[in-house]
Amino acid sequence: MSENGKPGPGPSAQRPDPTSVETVAQLGYQLTLLRRSTPRASNEPGSALTLAELARRMDDKVPISTLGNAESGKILPSGENVYLIALACGLSQQEAGEWARARERAWQHRHRSPHRAAAAATEPASQLAVDPPSGQITEAEAEYHLLATMHPRRATARLNEMGVERTIQLLARLSPDDAHMIAVFTAMDPTRLAAALTDLRPDLARPLLDGIGPQKVMSLFNRMPVETIGELAAAMDPPRAAGMLAAIDPDQATRVLGAMEWIPAAAVLNEMTPDGAVVLNGLEPFEAAAALNEVNLQQAARLLTMMEKDRAASSLAHMRPDRVAMVLPLMEPDTVAGLLTIAGPDEAAALLAMMEQDLAAGLLDRAAQLLRAMRRQHAAPIPTATAWKQRVEALAVERRQAISRTL
To answer: Whole-angstrom Cα distance, residue 25 to residue 72?
Structure first.
């Protein structure tokens, strides 16, 4: 350990522990421990895995600077990057999922209080949040009242001539029942409005986003950074956000849901069923699994049933074992058996090992029957049902024994 408290060079004596992470600083420290405790390949001289070597293990898909920022403890990395870092350090998909959940806790800690620097425009320094002396109003309040009495077209033209900071101050005063001002803001130049919403605190943007149509919302989102899209979508009323995702192009809906944090994304998915399955099909399996881990159990079962079978099987393989054990019994047995035939023996065994044994045995028999039927109808790539079943059974026994040893 170095004098500044960071891990020193060489394999770390302290083992990384993602379950201890609550803050961004702790996440950065644990990611550093993870990298420095990862065994090096024989062709990598020295004792400590460097950021450059980690980047090469990730096929240079993530820049070295981004990896360094992730370990800095000051910048919150994306959930996808944390997941990929864990995989590159040799962890299993399940273990990588634990690191992704650590990142989620760090995000929640950071967002317990107003978190945008630009939100300072709504703080006392901007005179917006200050209670003025008796009988006086702030400039922002006076401007807002003036716009509220003007013809909508002229009020919008006046807004389009204002700077971003003043627009932010006015947006922060908007209430959900002020239909006139919602219409005035909606008619603004979309690039100007998007710039103001990007710097506005997400909770203060909710009255506008909940009060306009889905296509208009997407027009604004298309002018914003992905991180902002996720935060604003998370701030919307979940039924309204679900309706928006159902009304827009599935690829756009996937982009919005993928930009959201998992817990607010799950709240939106709880309001969707067929449309939610379509959106989940477009996500990476670990992203879909993260959302399915948070939705209610009945909804998770419905969404998995409606997803494309290969996507559902891959998502199940990335879900938490305790969730899998609770969700699969809620699905039709033939549906689950069909998913098992798509999964490889290792993935199928892992799923069965977390289930009640009688149910798992019945599903395994049904999956073998489906494989035999598939083999009769198709050519060689379909595995032999008997060999597949024996392999799954043997692996499932090993998995059950491993689970019981940890309890």
So the answer is: 7
**Per-position DSSP letters for 106-145, written without gaps between them:** HHHHHTTS---GGGGGGSGGGTSSS-PPTT---HHHHHHH
DSSP codes joined into one string, 314-350: HHHHHS-HHHHHHHGGGS-HHHHHHHHHHS-HHHHHH
Return d(Cα 230, Cα 227) in angstroms, integer: 5
- CATH number of the domain where residue 167 is located: 1.25.60
pLDDT score, position 372? 58
Angle of CA points 290, 294, 297, to nearest 5°: 120
- pLDDT of 78 > 50? The answer is yes
What does the pLDDT read at residue 207? 93
Q: Which has more pLDDT, 122 or 240?
A: 240
The first and second tokens of residue 292, run together, are 């399915």
Provide the residue range defining the domain that includes 32.
18-110
pLDDT greater than 70 at residue 391: no
Tally Cβ neighbours within 10 Å of residue 284.
15
CA neighbor of 99 nearest in space, from 66, 70, 135, 127: 70
Secondary structure of 30-81 as H, E, C letters: HHHHHHHCCCCCCCCCCCCCCHHHHHHHCCCCCCHHHHHHHHHCCCCCCHHH
CA dist 7 and 372 (Å) reads 54
Which residue type occupies 148? A
The rounded mean pLDDT for the chain is 78
Q: Let me know: does 86 contact 101? Beta carbons within 8 Å.
A: no
User: Full-prediction pTM beyond 0.70?
Assistant: no
Indicate the number of domains in the chain: 3
Query: Rounded distance, CA 297 to CA 335, Å?
Result: 16
269-292 pLDDT per residue, tens: 999 877 788 889 888 888 888 889
Q: Which of 339, 334, 282 is nearest to 314 (CA)?
A: 339
- Residues 56 and 112: their CA atoms lie apart, in Å, by 36
Do 149 and 195 lie in one domain? The reply is: yes
